[in-house]
Write a structure and sequence with these properties.
Number of strands: 6
Order of helices and strands: HHHHHEEHHEHEHEE
Radius of gyration: 21 Å
Strand order of the largest sheet: 5-4-3-6
Shape: elongated
Distance between the termini: 42 Å
Strand content: 5-15%
Helix content: 40-55%
Structural class: alpha/beta
């Protein structure tokens, strides 16, 4: 529901801001709304209800990341305040900020390996656009043996193509993904692109255990399966079989392989 006094263009601007926040994009790369757009109390209320209220929202970014976002947002808002008697900051917004400040200080030992929910939104203009939420380590920089613990840019680019121009490659098809990592692409295919069956594979048993959790998090257990598949090792038929014994696939996906 759009807040009053916000035009359709402004509404889309706020929606894009929300999507980048949920995807935990670096705050330095996010275009924050102008102060004048944030000043109306209904807009501040929309921000609380759709981005920061952990009592009603699930799978929010980490406290430290949210604190950085809110600190910048409140700074912009304070700079826009001209009349102390007319302009005000919503109490719920400051309460959320205080809560995330406390939690951020408690989480100062957050490591690059810490897993947290990251929500990816389809590249469409609709307010209720399809999403995929992945429990991953978004601060991970290494491309070594732990690279399977986060979603990388190549998977996002491939996902954009499949969602916009390549949907016909996936719909009603059986899909095999190699080097699936935590499962973003496979889950996208099973959740939003109409795949008949998806088998995601990776060489790491630990990563596949986490990927199975993401399958369950997104509610695609009946469509998406996980299996360990080490490259260079003898291929055992059971690895590539689903519950019905299928070993033939219409499409093989691979990003960053």
């Amino acid at each position: 529901m759009s807040p009053p006094l916000v035009t359709n263009w402004d509404r889309l601007h706020f929606e894009l801001f929300r999507r980048k926040y949920l995807q935990m994009i670096d705050p330095l790369e996010i275009a924050f709304p102008y102060g004048e757009l944030i000043k109306p109390l209904p807009v501040q209320d929309w921000l609380v209800r759709n981005m920061f209220d952990k009592r009603r929202l699930e799978n929010l970014p980490t406290a430290r990341y949210t604190f950085r976002i809110m600190k910048k947002l409140l700074s912009i808002l304070e700079d826009a305040m001209e009349d102390p008697e007319e302009d005000e900051i919503l109490n719920d917004l400051t309460d959320c900020f205080t809560d995330f400040l406390v939690r951020a200080r408690q989480d100062e030992m957050e490591s690059a390996q810490e897993k947290c929910p990251v929500t990816y939104t389809a590249p469409v203009g609709e307010v209720d656009a399809p999403t995929v939420t992945i429990l991953e380590a978004p601060f991970l920089l290494s491309c070594g043996g732990d690279s399977g613990n986060r979603t990388w840019a190549a998977a996002l680019h491939l996902a954009t193509y499949l969602f916009t121009d390549g949907r016909y490659l996936v719909e009603n098809k059986s899909i095999l993904e190699l080097g699936a990592g935590l499962g973003f692409l496979s889950i996208l295919c099973g959740k939003h692109l109409g795949a008949k069956h998806v088998l995601m594979t990776d060489g790491s048993e630990a990563v596949m255990d986490l990927a199975q959790g993401n399958v369950e998090l997104n509610g695609v257990e009946g469509v998406v399966e996980t299996s360990v598949l080490e490259w260079g090792a003898p291929c055992i038929d059971d690895v590539l079989q689903d519950e019905s014994g299928l070993t033939s696939y219409d499409l093989v996906l691979g990003a960053d392989i």
